[in-house]
Amino acid sequence: MALLPILYADKTLPDFDPPKKPKRNKFAIAIAILASMTSILLGYDIGVMSGAAKFIKEQFKLADVQIEILSGTINIYSLVGLAMAGRMSDWIGRRYTVVVVGVIFFVGAILMGFATNYTFLMVGRFVAGVGVGYALMIAPVYTAEVSPASVRGFLTSFPEHIVSAHIYLYFTSLLPI
């Protein structure tokens, strides 16, 4: 019993407290979540195209095969964006590449919105697909760069959760149609 006070004599009360959690940079977490929101593009594109296909088919008098090609080519077109995204992000930086993603997808949406025939619609689909490819490549990389280490794993997987959630939301919003 006499040794106990001697062993801990140099220790103070704070030494026995549980370790404090590291501070989280809330601004960095917010930026990471916003960067992950670029993944909405893919969920939006898949969900809305499934509902719009019926109306596109009627308006442009398309065959079923053309509608299937129109709906399915987003995956092929996104490969172009995926291939170019790494080089561009090294060239202008991840943050500005996220801005370019938004512009590319916006231009693709405008082209599809003003399409007067199937070819023009496919050009708009190509541009939007390239934007989706950029988004799928850049969002997790940029998110990993700006995220604090304590939540990096969660935030890096956040874009995938957003894609799945938005596909579900857009499909369910089309049920009344």
Automatic annotation (TrEMBL):
MF GO annotations: carbohydrate transmembrane transporter activity; symporter activity
Major facilitator superfamily (MFS) profile domain segment(s): 31-177
Location (main, coarse): membrane
Membrane spanning residue stretches: 27-47, 67-84, 96-116, 122-142
Subcellular location(s) of the protein: Membrane
Family affiliation: Belongs to the major facilitator superfamily. Sugar transporter (TC 2.A.1.1) family.
Full protein name: Major facilitator superfamily (MFS) profile domain-containing protein
Domain of life: Eukaryota
Keywords of the record: Membrane, Sugar transport, Symport, Transmembrane, Transmembrane helix, Transport
Membrane topology category: Multi-pass membrane protein
GO annotation, cellular component aspect: membrane
Lineage: Eukaryota, Viridiplantae, Streptophyta, Embryophyta, Tracheophyta
PANTHER family, alphabetized: POLYOL TRANSPORTER 5, SOLUTE CARRIER FAMILY 2, FACILITATED GLUCOSE TRANSPORTER
